[in-house]
Automatic annotation (TrEMBL):
Listed name of the protein: Zn-dependent hydrolase
Top-level taxonomy: Bacteria, Pseudomonadati, Pseudomonadota, Gammaproteobacteria, Chromatiales
Alphabetical keyword list: Hydrolase, Metal-binding
CDD domains reported in the protein's UniProt record: POD-like_MBL-fold
InterPro entries with a match to the protein in the record: Metallo-B-lactamas (IPR001279), Mito_Persulfide_Diox (IPR051682), POD-like_MBL-fold (IPR044528), RibonucZ/Hydroxyglut_hydro (IPR036866)
Metallo-beta-lactamase domain span: 12-171
GO molecular function annotation: hydrolase activity; metal ion binding; sulfur dioxygenase activity
Length: 249
């Protein structure tokens, strides 16, 4: 498997490129609108063909580039079926592995950050989206967030994976790239150390986080699989415009 972890600096989002070396088929997971050209150039440089894009959930802090990549590369849009997006080409659900060439992606239904959130397991790796971050987790205080649901998703789905499973998060704001299930079970300040459900819910309810600055544009845009809505203020235009530079790993 060809695997690349890519960073988008405006929203501090990680995009993941997975490629099948046997067939040349590729998928981008959680692609971001400002970096779609960079991502597609990398796909081409590696001699791959982009067959699919796939998001972990309906994002509130950035807009997916699924629609742009479908237009430019002919890729199909895969998305969790529970969100019932009319623009989805391939609905994804837990219990039904998703194949990209010879690669096997196992969807894990992990609601709590949103009610449709999925993580994706590929062998000894798991792409956790916003359900589980490095030393953190996604917030649960807007839209369909639910702290109790997130606790059960992490404890019952993610923390039951083998300790050596590598954790690749949807975001990181501190320059970190990778963790493991063992590490997060041990030291995650929000969910590690056998924290109780009551303690976790109290913690999440008390975070008092600021209202997401791009949510009113991101959510409707993502319900259309990547449309930047009209009326985005100039100070938020970077979320829609192609950026000149982006760190890549």
């Amino acid at each position: 498997m060809l695997f690349r972890q890519l960073f988008e600096p405006v929203s501090s989002t990680y995009t993941y490129l997975l490629g099948c070396e046997e067939t040349g088929d590729a998928i981008l997971i959680d692609p971001v609108l400002p970096t779609w050209q960079r991502d597609l150039e990398l796909v081409n440089q590696l001699g791959l063909t982009l067959r699919f894009t796939l998001d972990t959930h309906i994002h509130a802090d950035h807009i997916t580039s699924a629609r742009a990549l479908k237009r430019e590369a002919g890729s199909r849009i895969a998305h969790p079926a529970v969100d019932a997006l009319t623009c989805t080409d391939v609905p994804i659900a837990e219990g039904t592995p998703f194949a990209v060439g010879t690669l096997r992606i196992e969807p894990l239904f992990t609601p709590g950050h949103t009610d449709g959130h999925h993580a994706y397991r590929i062998g000894n790796q798991v792409l956790t989206g916003d359900a589980l971050l490095i030393d953190a987790c996604g917030r649960t205080d807007f839209l369909s967030g639910d702290a109790t649901a997130l606790y059960h998703s992490v404890m019952g789905k993610l923390f039951t994976l083998p300790d050596e499973t590598l954790v690749y998060p949807g975001h990181d704001y501190e320059g970190r790239w990778i963790s493991s299930i063992a590490q997060e079970k041990t030291r995650n300040p929000r969910l590690g150390g056998q924290r109780s459900l009551a303690s976790f819910v109290e913690l999440m309810d008390g975070l008092d986080l600021a209202y997401p600055k791009f949510i009113d544009y991101a959510v409707p845009g993502n319900r259309e699989c990547g449309v930047c809505p009209a009326g985005v203020p100039e100070h938020l235009s970077q979320y829609c415009d192609q950026i000149a530079e982006s760190r890549q790993g």
